[in-house]
Amino acid sequence: MNPYEQAYAAACNDPESFWAEQAAQLIWYRTPTAILQRDAQGHQRWFANGQLNTCYLAVDAHVEQGRGAQTAIIYDSPVTGVQQKISYAELQEQVARCAGMLRELGVGQGDRVIIYMPMIPQALTAMLACARLGVIHSVVFGGFSAAELAVRIDDAKPKLLVTASCGIEVGRVLPYKPLVDKALSLAKTPPQQVVLVARAQCEADLQVGRDHDWDSLMQAAPSVAPVAVAATDPLYILYTSGTTGKPKGVVRDNGGHAVALNFSMSAVFDAQPGEVFWAASDIGWVVGHSYIVYAPLLRGCTTLLYEGKPVNTPDAGAFWRVIGEHRVKVFFTAPTAFRAIRREDPDLKLAAAHDLSCLKAVYVAGERLDPSTYQWLHSFLPCPVVDHWWQTETGWPIVANPLGLTAYPTRSGSATLPVPGFQLEVLDDQGQPCATEQAGNIVIKLPLPPGTLLTLWQDDARYVDSYLSTFPGYYLSGDGGYRDQDGYVFVMGRIDDVINVAGHRLSSGALEEVLGTHPAVAECAVVGLDDALKGEMPVGFVVLKQGAAIDPQTLQAELVQSVREAVGAVASLRRVHVLKRLPKTRSGKILRKTIRALALTPQVPIPATIEDATVLDELRELFEREGCYSQPPRERG
Ligand code: COA
Ligand code: AMP
């Protein structure tokens, strides 16, 4: 057996010994002896009687072990022209003070803090300072609207919110404070205090008694040492889209998370202490939590914090510039970013000026790496290109090419093999194992490895219902796919109503709620249709109320605007079509999958449960008019 096969077998056959061995690589205040506790419903607790501190492991431990002078964070911000290097010793000083600031503001263990910030070093400091105190952070992506922020505030009930005066998008300053003020006024349980990082690009008004200036408080704050927390205490809540309008608050623990991320850095990413690791994502997503903040720092790498885009900041050579300039060893982004670069610079003229020989491997996730983009990357990159599949819920890769254990030959369209700890199976809808190459539900046999979600915040029933009840004994991933004769896993996309736009998860239900509030709309459906750049784009289909007099253009403009306001620009809803009727089952369920299929080809299997198949003719005509059938179908590999 090769090292991958050995590790995979060990993690399957004796998970407790395998993960106890991984846990022994970290420093614990109290070494765990109870490795895995499980209950009949499928809940699990890793390292229940262990005590540790994630911030200590990510920061202080490196200083104590002589890495104080090493750069912990490289901040590269083409949108402001700022570059900054922060050593582990400096980070420790900042984080200890920030923890002191939080404590002085009355925030303590188990309290929640919402972090609504752009990609600046203070965002990482705030996250780590929460971890230092055992405070549970919940980072909300800066592209979400005030209304979405308010929903998360009401769910997490934070004591404090940390923000900045603005974010910066291509050529635009986006003031955050008006959004925060609006969110606080919409929320039923707003935090009593706000701390704001004032950026040079934008001033913000501070409300006396509630709002504080970050710099002033930090100057006066005492340094605070890490506190010991239980391995099972929550480190963070991260909201992600489910199929309904209410986001799911994924709860991550401290102990399992640290152990799993540390393991992933060696087994999957083959990243060594001291190497520069760059995940070009955003701290608001799980990729940012795991691979901008926690994993690289736990491993003693230098993490790169990039405040910019793949294109337009200033051009499609930006990624190559950053890789070459900072000697990035491991690079991680979403396929959509490479498609954006390829669209602008197909012949890679802008890459030629940069020395990419530092790269050991490039990883992509967030959506499937389509074969065409894979071939393009493979043709010029001096290193392996690794597609790997995972989710907010798992927190780290489920399927990957385990370069740190055994490098496997890549198969275009496949994310390669299950990572040790994830016992992956493909089941049909009746729960029977699928044959080789037969597509079905991708599930993971329990127990899940450490680092995966504990539950959903304040909604354990939804956790059990969403993930554990469809196939007892298995975690339901929500993705469909198959395995080939050698066990390579091909993930083909969501089997539920989650839409994946540029690697971001959106719920069709949340967007439908917004369209449904328009006075002219009787009913609606939002479906993710294939898009050459973003993978999928949400498209709305609405039926008007009897007698509604509004022209389709005006209606579309109003609905697009209301989605921007209610969800955020990141939803990218640009098209809305008016239909006479929506295709539905006899019990009234909208057939979104059929709409999606019809956009690809006019001949689709007619669902047996459809109420009236003639409804599909109107959709066929629409997609014909839109030119959907004259484009080559996207490669499915
Ligand atoms: N704060 C505020 N607004 C934001 C934002 C943020 N952090 N991020 C995005 N937005 C806004 C954009 O300004 C844009 O607004 P607009 O409609 O007014 O122009 C809208 O949300 C859509 O943004 P985006 O999805 O970035 O699309 P784009 O067309 O501007 O750029 C890509 C396309 C492919 C370059 C971009 O989607 C990208 O960089 N993707 C990488 C994805 C990624 O990192 N995913 C994380 C998972 S690994
Ligand atoms: P998120 O929770 O936002 O990270 O989104 C997770 C979802 O993105 C998964 O359930 C998949 O649908 C999709 N996804 C992520 N990575 C991949 C990948 N490598 N291949 C296919 N789909 C992916």
TrEMBL record:
<dbReference type="Pfam" id="PF00501">
    <property type="entry name" value="AMP-binding"/>
</dbReference>
<dbReference type="InterPro" id="IPR042099">
    <property type="entry name" value="ANL_N_sf"/>
</dbReference>
<feature type="domain" description="Acetyl-coenzyme A synthetase N-terminal">
    <location>
        <begin position="4"/>
        <end position="57"/>
    </location>
</feature>
<dbReference type="InterPro" id="IPR000873">
    <property type="entry name" value="AMP-dep_synth/lig_dom"/>
</dbReference>
<dbReference type="Pfam" id="PF16177">
    <property type="entry name" value="ACAS_N"/>
</dbReference>
<protein>
    <submittedName>
        <fullName>Propionyl-CoA synthetase</fullName>
    </submittedName>
</protein>
<dbReference type="InterPro" id="IPR025110">
    <property type="entry name" value="AMP-bd_C"/>
</dbReference>
<dbReference type="InterPro" id="IPR032387">
    <property type="entry name" value="ACAS_N"/>
</dbReference>
<dbReference type="InterPro" id="IPR045851">
    <property type="entry name" value="AMP-bd_C_sf"/>
</dbReference>
<feature type="domain" description="AMP-binding enzyme C-terminal">
    <location>
        <begin position="511"/>
        <end position="589"/>
    </location>
</feature>
<comment type="similarity">
    <text>Belongs to the ATP-dependent AMP-binding enzyme family.</text>
</comment>
<feature type="domain" description="AMP-dependent synthetase/ligase">
    <location>
        <begin position="67"/>
        <end position="446"/>
    </location>
</feature>
<dbReference type="Pfam" id="PF13193">
    <property type="entry name" value="AMP-binding_C"/>
</dbReference>
<dbReference type="InterPro" id="IPR020845">
    <property type="entry name" value="AMP-binding_CS"/>
</dbReference>
